[in-house]
Amino acid sequence: MAGNSFGTLYKVTTFGESHGEALGGIIDGCPPGIQLDFEAIEVDMARRKPGQSAIVTQRKEPDAVQFLSGIFEGKTTGTPIGFIIPNTNQKSDDYSHIKDNYRPSHADYVYDQKYGFRDYRGGGRSSARETASRVVAGAIAKQMLPEIKINAYVSSVGPIHLDTPYQELDFSKIESNPVRCPDEKSAAIMEEYIRDIRKQGDTVGGVVTCVIQNVPVGLGEPVFDKLHAELGKAMLSINAVKGFEYGSGFSGSEMKGSEHNDLYNADGTTKTNLSGGIQGGISNGMDIYFRVAFKPVATIMQTQDSLDNKGNITPMTGKGRHDPCVVPRAVPIVEAMAAIVLADFYLINKTY
């Protein structure tokens, strides 16, 4: 299987399966001498881990990171940083009923067709549990760029939308509720909706908005390695992501140029920011903001027709421990992938 690495100079390779012994990764290209805040890494891991609230999967995993290399006396050495995250709460028997069946909208069928084999325990390599390794790499990337602030939050769950401009939100409230929505009223409505969806044995999607502030001018490599293109690739590589838009996004297609153009101030900043902090594929120093759309989790606790490996259509009911809505736990993953992209471009920019 190819495609397990991301990045050019700050390069992250992940390994492991949902129900294997451990997940892990190797971070290549991290500069030496960075004093690591291990508590900050633990905080980001805790934000992603399962079992953290009543509205997420109840799999209990501590997601404790064990660093194996690349760190000495709390500082990065410049050599590859190797780490593992042991799996401690697998319940593989929960998946025995799909050993010969392909779950609708999962990767089961395509993995089997492509490789002639699949790990049916929790989806194996296709499981969103793989993203735990990304969060480790992203947490270290954030510490490479302490001046840059990355804040992601849930801006919609199903039909419930938070339309307040991000400039009017208090990001310190993101972690004040299990939904990770900085608006308390919207968060309460979203949480109740997710609980109701779970009672129905169903799932629901949503949107995560991410805001990146204090980005220096000049990150991004035209023509094919534009900053927004790499951010889009990073976000679309996350499990269950169906869409990415930055700045004015699709709404910009309905505007006239006279409405959409960001006019300059004398210091090079712009009066508006419909460009989303990126012009010509290069950061312009304004806030970068984007939205990431997540589909409903494919495993539902209802009976649906599935396909077995003999070509028969058979009924199947979902079992096991699954998120009724993935977006609350996706918030730190979105932040992590954004940090990895920025760290990579930061290092590339230093080669000039």
What does this structure look like?
This protein is of the alpha+beta class and 352 residues long. The chain contains seven helices and 17 strands. It has helices spanning 38-48, 108-115, 131-144, 184-199, 227-236, 257-260, 327-349; strands at residues 5-6, 11-16, 22-28, 66-67, 71-72, 75-76, 81-86, 101-102, 149-157, 160-161, 206-213, 241-246, 278-279, 282-283, 288-294, 303-308, 313-317. The chain has a five-stranded antiparallel beta sheet, with helices on one face. A five-stranded antiparallel beta sheet has the order 10-9-11-15-12. Strands 8-16-17 form a three-stranded antiparallel beta sheet, with no helix packed on it. Strand 9 (149-157) and strand 10 (160-161) form a beta hairpin. Helix 1 (38-48) packs across helix 7, helix 3 crosses helix 7 (327-349) and helix 5 (227-236) packs antiparallel against helix 7. The longest helix has 23 residues, at 327-349. The chain is globular. The model has no long low-confidence stretch (mean pLDDT 94).
Key phrases:
alpha+beta; five-stranded antiparallel sheet; 7 helices
Give the helices and strands, then pairings.
Elements: E1 5-6, E2 11-16, E3 22-28, H1 38-48, E4 66-67, E5 71-72, E6 75-76, E7 81-86, E8 101-102, H2 108-115, H3 131-144, E9 149-157, E10 160-161, H4 184-199, E11 206-213, H5 227-236, E12 241-246, H6 257-260, E13 278-279, E14 282-283, E15 288-294, E16 303-308, E17 313-317, H7 327-349
Helix pairs in contact: 1-3, 1-7, 3-7, 5-7
